[in-house]
Amino acid sequence: MKIKQFFHRSLAVVLSTALSFGLASQVQAKADSLRIGYQKNGPLLLLKNSGDLDKRLAQQGVEVKWTEFTAGPPLLEALNVESIDFGTTGGTPPIFAQAAKTDLVYVAYDLPAPSSEAIIVPKDSPARTVADLKGKKVAFNKGSSAHYLVIKSLEEAGLKYDDIEPVFLSPSDARAAFERGSIDAWAIWDPFFAVAEEQLQPRILRNGVDQYSFYLSSRNYVTENPDIIEIVIDELNKVGKWIEANPEQASKEFNKFLGLSYEISHKTVTRRNYGTQFLTDEIVATQQKIADVFTDLELIPVKVNIKDVVWTPAK
């Protein structure tokens, strides 16, 4: 009898310990930090500057860490190697990242802002239309929203992608090449576009095309921390509404980070559209059409299915 009682007590201790460990593991599974990748544009930048998200998440014991990126592709590479948990890019980078097997998920989107990017040429360039770029060197960041802008613009001008010489350059390298005259045209987005407009007075051949901007996370992070992601989207939506209601003040806040002229900041702020929302079937279908363009041109190695990597919050 004593042996049986000892066995039962021991088993109870083991089960209690295991249960406690399991509960502790579940608690530990919730992140104590959120590492955000951002660029020098959009509501995420102003959210960083305001500190509102940091304060709100700090109440839940979550520390926000911010890392700046110059473009979407390197930001998503950081997401792939688990250096960040959340970030924002244009519509094209996540397509390339998904094709490269990055374990990302689309979390939310912002409305297109076609006037915030363009294909530009030097002011003394003989090129007057996109059709004049046949046989010319056109610079853009590979896998960026500018990449799709070039493809779509060529199609509308009756040209093929092979009709130009693509030059894959980061924004800073493309700016230098543009000033040297070693490229004929440059596809670029704000704030780099706004800076070039003010400082270089280029000619605009074509403004942007409708592409949504997206907020993305790693599948593991959003699965384990959906409440944190929902808070981020809520704060982004608040910031977007504030920007729309206060464009002048938003431009001043934006300029605190950029350190450029008020005119550049004002352009960057006012030619975007705001209102961060979770994805709908219509948005997914639109993004799928863009992905299929890259597949058809064999610019990505596999066909991707956008709806496979879309996260939506629980109802």
From TrEMBL:
Protein's organism: Lonepinella koalarum
Domain Solute-binding protein family 3/N-terminal: 33-246
Domain of life: Bacteria
Purpose: Part of a binding-protein-dependent transport system for aliphatic sulfonates. Putative binding protein.
Subcellular location(s) of the protein: Periplasm
Keyword presence, Repeat: no
Keyword Cell division: no
Protein name as it appears in the record: Putative aliphatic sulfonates-binding protein
